[in-house]
Amino acid sequence: MTEFTIEVVLAVAVGIVIIAAAGIVLCRRFRKNARAHALDTMEGQEFEYYCANLLAANGFIEVEVTKGSGDYGIDILAEKDGVTYAIQCKRYTGLVGVKAVQEAYAGRDYYDRMVGAVMTNQYFTKPAAEAARKLKILMWDRDYIEYLEET
User: Angle at the Cα of 150 (from 120 to 78), degrees rounded to 5?
Assistant: First the structure.
């Protein structure tokens, strides 16, 4: 009788652990989907401030959202570990093209920053990725934003 009771208790304990683990996974997926939906429904300027706050929470300093017009394609200026950044934010419903990369390239030089980047809630077209590699512009896509959200 004692062996049966220990087996039952162990089986119940294992079941509880499995259910708890499944619950944690589902909660994380739900939160991730909710954040993804929020990213996709933000207005452009709201997305810029969201990205600026995300960068600041991840060790960037002197994070500044530029004024809307006349920003030369740059939405955020920031610094991390002595490296200065000029960042173009794009909250799109589709893939980000070459134009955003060109804007980051021009804005990086205009603001005399070391690194240019395009930060987006989406992903990049193949030509945009090729241009970014050639022009040495960082591509911070949806996966990078999700990584920053989790750290």
Answer: 50
